[in-house]
Every structure is written in C-alpha cells, then in structure tokens.
UniProtKB/TrEMBL annotation:
SMART domains: CheW. InterPro entries: CheW, CheW-like_dom_sf, CheW-lke_dom. It holds the Pfam family CheW. This is Chemotaxis protein CheW. PROSITE patterns: CHEW. The lineage of its organism: Archaea, Methanobacteriati, Methanobacteriota, Stenosarchaea group, Halobacteria. Residues 1-136 form the CheW-like domain.
C-alpha cells in the first residue's frame, strides 16, 4: 500500500494515496456562514466547488502557522461524491507501507484514525478521509 505523508502542527500524518486526487497550493478561500468550525471555506477548483477542511481542528492538533498546501481527495471515494480538500502545513512524500508496520489506533483517538504506521524511528498517524467526511 502507498500513503501520502504530510505535516500538521509539526507531526507527520498520512492517508492512503488511493484517496488523493491532487495537491494544490493554498489559494483564497470563501468563507461559508454557519459552517462547522473545521470547514475553513470553499474554493473553485476547475469549476467545482470544493469544501476545504482543517484537519487540525478535527484532530485537536495545535495550530503552528498557516497551512500552505491543500490535499484534494477523489470525490468518487466518498458516498456523496463530495469535493473535499484538507489544509496541510507541508506535503512530505509518497511512501510504500507494509500492513505489518501498521498498528491499531489508540482507543481514545480512533474516530478518524485508521492506524499507526511504524517507520524507522518514527510513528506516523494514518488518517481516514472517509471517516473525517462523516464529521461534516
């Protein structure tokens, strides 16, 4: 399996690369009145209105500065085919991961977490975009 690694608040996270459609620079976002706290706004991406989510808010990650990139997810991967992107501080790399290196998520934080990936001397939190969509 391949994952896309990215940074949030100084920590490394990843998502299954099969969910990722593209990565774009952060542009201007339009605020949406009465939107949930984790929705930063919407943007026009090639004629499609795309909701931009701040995963730091969903995961209770400390804000460390302005996110510079947006990971856009493949809408076909979601039940309602919603166009969604995540604000991330930095995109690191695409990496091949063995399922033998994936541990179950900690019980108290398993709402959005698929597992914990052991990589070298580092632990990487694997997040499920489809689970975060259900929070929306």
């Amino acid at each position: 399996m391949q994952v896309l690694e990215f940074e949030l608040g100084g920590e490394t996270y990843c998502v299954d690369i099969d969910y990722v459609s593209e990565i774009v620079d952060r542009g201007s976002l339009t605020s949406v009145p009465n939107a949930p706290e984790f929705v930063e706004g919407v943007m026009d991406l090639r004629g499609r209105t795309t909701s931009i989510v701040n995963p730091k808010t969903l995961l209770n990650v400390e804000e460390t500065g302005e996110a510079s990139r947006i990971v856009i997810f493949d809408a076909k991967q979601f039940e309602d085919e919603a166009a969604i992107g995540w604000l991330v501080d930095e995109v690191d790399q695409v990496l091949r991961v063995s399922m033998n290196d994936v541990e179950d998520p900690p019980m108290e934080r398993s709402d959005f977490i698929e597992g914990i990936v052991r990589r070298d001397d580092e632990l990487v939190v694997w997040i499920s975009p489809t689970k975060t969509e259900s929070a929306a």
